[in-house]
Structures are given as structure tokens and as C-alpha cells.
Amino acid sequence: MKLKTIAAIMLLVVVVTTSCKKPPTSVTLDKTTATLAIGKTLTLKATVLPANAANKNVTWSSDKSEVAVVENGKVTAKSRGTATITVTTEEANLTATCVITVTETDGPVYSHPAEPEMILVQGGTFMMGCTGEQGSSCLTNEEPAHSVTVESFYIAKFEITQWQWDTLMGNNPSDFQKGRNYPVENVTWNDVQQFISRLNAATNKRYRLPTEAEWEYAARGGNRSQGFRYSGSNTIGDVAWYRDNTPSQGQDGYGTQPVGTKSPNELGIYDMNGNVIEWCGDLYGEYSGDAQQNPTGPLTGTDRVQRGGSWGQPAQSCRITWRLNKYPTAKGNNAGFRLVLLP
Ligand SMILES: [Ca+2]
After folding, report:
1. What span, in angstroms and rounded, lies between the C-alpha atoms of 284 and 304?
2. Which residues line ion ligand 1, judged by CB < 5 Å?
3. Could you tell me the fold of the domain covering 24-103?
4. CATH class of 118-341
5. Is the pTM of this model over 0.90?
6. Ligand 1 centre distance from Cα of residue 121 (Å)
7. In the chain, which residues have pLDDT < 50?
8. Cα-based torsion angle of the residue sequence 70, 102, 262, 305 in order, rounded to the nearest 10 degrees
9. According to the model, what pLDDT value does residue 11 have?
10. Can you give the residue ranges of every domain in the chain?
């Protein structure tokens, strides 16, 4: 009788203990988005509930191991791009994810995958417009050269890509849809303002188009300028996709090229000349010879400025001082943009 009682109590204890072991009901990660420079690591923390779950074991995976790998929650950035890290509970198969944006270098803290990688351009004073390295190529709207001072700013290392546009806007207006790292094109100046509004709402930052002066200062290499005719070189083919090195219509490779596939300029900025011509924020106007501080263009007018030339244009139009004016409703498969952010 006594033994039977002990056995019954032991059985009860086993039953009670077993019934306390619950399956996981949720898993969460301490981060849902993160940005990492190549080679850097980040350890994600997974929380499995309830606290007394019988089995809290989890497994980790990356959907793009070429971009980021994960082992026991430790994420290592491998190459530029975006990867989704997923944690899965061993029991019940619950999941949580974190989107990792991998950048080439450290810079501002990015919180949205559509945010471009930025390069700091230290402020300074330069001669804007037709200066000596342009020889006799200048048109009248590049004259007179005049002294301009700009504050420090960040500028996107690359033209905004089709993937960045699609991630934020949910569409891809581009004519040349050949891959995620091709620049977005076929966007009007007004379309770009919508992209910027949405990006600023999502990030609580103040991205905008570069002023024409910021664009030219950055194209010239800022305070590291070596005085090149094109952005980063006197040999255009080293730094730019333009008419003479872009395959003809009907051939493979006609149109835009992936961003960042030519050499960068003195500041590490790519494709300032060629690939897509780039919208600037300013209204278009004639230059004056007066020295200016942080100019933002004329107060009145109709057209907006485009800079840098494109894959379809000759070397003459892919010089750092060449200017074009377009209606803000104009678009074409040679025109895109990059963004600026103040520190
Ligand atoms: Ca360009």
C-alpha cells in the first residue's frame, strides 16, 4: 500500500512535469533591419516564448549567403546587397526575420533598404563652370566661371538603382530592366520628388536632390580634386559609360549599365559622368560671375537641371561642367538621379 502510494505520487509528478512543458508560441528578434559594412559582424538575439517552453532551440538561415551569412545568430556581411536572416524554432516551426543591408563602407546609419550608400563631401570653395581643364569645349551656358562655396554634405556613391526604386515605390518604370543594380531611368523630376518624400517619411531624414553646385563640386572631386575634365579622369572611358563605349541598339548591353562598373572619382563616387544623366534640384538659369554661398539656383523658371551626360551622349556632353535643362515632367531612358543628405 505504501509502495503503491509512492508510485502514484511519482507518476503524478511525471505527469505534472510533462504537462508544464509547452511548445513555443512565438519567436522574435531584437532587430528587424540592420546595416553592416562588408566584413563587419552583428549578433542577433532571438527570444522564444513562453519562457518555460520545452524546446527553445532555433536554427538560423540567410536567403543570400553571398551577401550575408549567419551562424548561431552571428551575421557576417560578405558583399553589397540585401539579405534576409530567418530564425526558426526547432519545435512548431515559428519564424522571425531581419533584413540586413550590406554596404561597402561605413557611413550614415541606414534604416531602410532603399537608402543609398553615401559619401561625405567636405565643404569648400571652388570655381564653378567653364574652367581651364575644359579647353575650348564649353558652351555659353557654362560661362562665366564663378566662385562657389558649399557646406559639407553626403552624396550617394551610386545612381539610385532600379531595386532601390522598386523596394520603396513598388514599381519599376525603367526601360532597360536588366537587373537590380542598373540605374532607375524614365523618371520625371516630379516622380523623383515622390520617391524622396516617401524615403524621408520612412527614415525620418531629409534626403533631397543635389543642388547643381553640390553636384559639380562632388563631380570635381571636392577638396581632393585633381582638376580632371571628366569626373575622376581625363580619359572618359575609364570613368564613364557614354555613347562611344556603349553597345549599339540591337546589340547586347545597349542602354544603361550596372552602377559602379567604371572607376570612381577622387572621392570614391561612381558614374557622375555618363550612364544616366542626373536630375538636380535647381531650376535652370544662366550663370552670373558673382561669388555665391550654397546656391540653390534661380527663384523662378520652368526647367530643372540635368547633369553629367549619359550612355547615349558623346564625350562633349559628359564633361563635369556641361549643363542641360528639362521640364520637370520630362522623362527618358537616359535620365535618373542620385541623392544628397546633410550631415
Ligand atoms: Ca551619371
Report:
1. 5
2. 271, 275, 308
3. Immunoglobulin-like (2.60.40)
4. alpha beta
5. no
6. 17
7. 14-17
8. 160
9. 54
10. 24-103, 118-341
